[in-house]
Design brief:
8 strands; single chain; alpha/beta; Rossmann fold; 29% helix; 5 helices
Length: 207
């Protein structure tokens, strides 16, 4: 298996990268700042310095891989919605079907109002919806892509600890959500490399 990983230096992305390398899985990563990548890859990691908004950087990072994982965050701008069409088009060009992304609980359906996304409902406590709107655009692009996608949607995401026990539900957040650490979120996303259970689904995660 050879993974194309975007967001490898981020909080969840770094956990996915660590899991991949420790399981002897080859990774090709695109990063903006090489100095943020502090890991002993044992020769399993190939890194390209560049930008996910540059199609050539995406194409070169993806070449020869089997599966794409995107742990990109919004960066407070439109990075997600602008990069996703480039990721999708290059996956199709390379013949890659499987993609796993990290979203947010805000783009799950609201339990109290299933016709709304959670960030549009009273269930969301966040004052700003900008990040959720970006994640929603990326999700809708994936949904229409024809690819085998899974969007992992953690609730409140502190660094926390690796507990190894958490709850999940398809397309909605489990009842009485609290938080989930970056480690358990990254572990769950990594496990999807070996499972078809959640293809075509958003998965809500919480303790």
């Amino acid at each position: 298996m050879n993974i194309c990983l975007f967001g490898a230096t981020g909080r969840v992305g770094s956990v996915i990268l660590e899991n991949s390398l420790s399981n002897q899985i080859s990774v090709q990563a695109l990063v903006r700042d090489l100095e943020k990548l502090n890991t002993d890859s044992g020769g399993l990691l190939k890194v390209r310095t560049g930008n996910v908004l540059n199609e050539e950087d995406i194409a070169q990072t993806m070449k020869g891989t089997d599966i794409v994982i995107s742990a990109l965050n919004t960066d407070g701008n439109s990075t997600l919605s602008q990069s996703m069409p480039l990721i999708i088009s290059n996956m199709k060009r390379e013949g890659i079907k499987r993609i796993i992304t990290i979203g947010t609980a805000g783009i799950l359906q609201a339990r109290s109002a299933p016709h709304l996304f959670r960030f549009q409902s009273s269930e969301s406590k966040r004052k700003s919806t900008l990040d959720a709107e970006e994640h929603l655009k990326a999700y809708l692009l994936l949904k229409a892509s024809g690819l085998d996608w899974t969007v992992v949607c953690p609730t409140y995401l502190p660094v926390g600890e690796r507990l190894g026990q958490y709850r999940y539900e398809i397309d909605i957040l489990p009842e009485n959500p609290s938080s989930i650490s970056i480690y358990d979120t990254g572990d769950f996303a990594f496990q999807q490399l070996f499972s078809n259970k959640f293809i075509g689904s958003r998965v809500g995660l919480t303790y």
